[in-house]
């Protein structure tokens, strides 16, 4: 069973590497290529609103050809986001825009997928190329490390794997603090603790 899981993971890594290579090679005219990465707890509505605002800004681009391709890419991203009711558990990666093929023709491309591991990056860029730096995080080692963090207020147990952190358990305590005052203050401190 574990061997099958390892094989699936290796296939996912191979697919991501191939995708990164293809995306890095793609070039476009003007700033008509949108790179959009949403972390797991992000909101689709926030990104849709932001794309709507960018649509308004892009309407002011002077070059007609560039304006149309940017507006087309934004519309394409908005349409693709409508297919999702919420951000998937591992986040969402979306690349869309008009690329120039090797024979000089323009071609519309839209790629969206949920990564095989949680992605903690957040990215929204319009450029003449796709930005894939954040995808390289997915290819990093996925060794898991455990942490116990303690201070005067409580304790936290968590894990760290690559760039993804997860809090397993957290609890707070209300300990009396050190003080430099002597004398008859014990009753007052007990009363203060009860008031909290």
From TrEMBL:
<dbReference type="GO" id="GO:0003747">
    <property type="term" value="F:translation release factor activity"/>
</dbReference>
<dbReference type="Pfam" id="PF03463">
    <property type="entry name" value="eRF1_1"/>
</dbReference>
<comment type="similarity">
    <text>Belongs to the eukaryotic release factor 1 family.</text>
</comment>
<protein>
    <recommendedName>
        <fullName>eRF1/Pelota-like N-terminal domain-containing protein</fullName>
    </recommendedName>
</protein>
<dbReference type="Pfam" id="PF03464">
    <property type="entry name" value="eRF1_2"/>
</dbReference>
<keyword id="KW-0648">Protein biosynthesis</keyword>
<feature type="domain" description="eRF1/Pelota-like N-terminal">
    <location>
        <begin position="4"/>
        <end position="140"/>
    </location>
</feature>
<dbReference type="InterPro" id="IPR042226">
    <property type="entry name" value="eFR1_2_sf"/>
</dbReference>
<keyword id="KW-0341">Growth regulation</keyword>
<comment type="function">
    <text>Directs the termination of nascent peptide synthesis (translation) in response to the termination codons UAA, UAG and UGA. Modulates plant growth and development.</text>
</comment>
<dbReference type="InterPro" id="IPR024049">
    <property type="entry name" value="eRF1_1_sf"/>
</dbReference>
<dbReference type="InterPro" id="IPR004403">
    <property type="entry name" value="Peptide_chain-rel_eRF1/aRF1"/>
</dbReference>
<dbReference type="InterPro" id="IPR005141">
    <property type="entry name" value="eRF1_2"/>
</dbReference>
<dbReference type="InterPro" id="IPR005140">
    <property type="entry name" value="eRF1_Pelota-like_N"/>
</dbReference>
């Amino acid at each position: 069973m574990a061997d099958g899981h390892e094989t699936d993971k290796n296939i996912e890594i191979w697919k991501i590497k191939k995708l990164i290579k293809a995306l890095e090679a793609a070039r476009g005219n003007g700033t008509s290529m949108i790179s959009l990465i949403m972390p797991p707890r992000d909101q689709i509505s926030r990104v849709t609103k932001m794309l709507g605002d960018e649509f308004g800004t892009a309407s002011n681009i002077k070059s007609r050809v560039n304006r149309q391709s940017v507006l087309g890419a934004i519309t394409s991203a908005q349409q693709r986001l409508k297919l999702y009711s919420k951000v998937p558990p591992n986040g969402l990666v979306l690349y869309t825009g008009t690329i120039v093929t090797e024979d000089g023709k323009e071609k519309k491309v839209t790629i969206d997928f949920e990564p095989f591991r949680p992605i903690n990056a957040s990215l929204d860029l319009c450029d003449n190329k796709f930005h894939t730096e954040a995808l390289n995080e997915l290819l990093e080692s996925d060794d898991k490390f455990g942490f116990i963090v303690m201070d005067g207020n409580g304790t936290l147990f968590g894990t760290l794997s690559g760039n993804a952190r997860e809090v397993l358990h957290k609890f707070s305590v209300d300990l009396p603090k050190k003080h430099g005052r002597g004398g008859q203050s014990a009753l007052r401190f007990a009363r203060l603790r009860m008031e909290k």
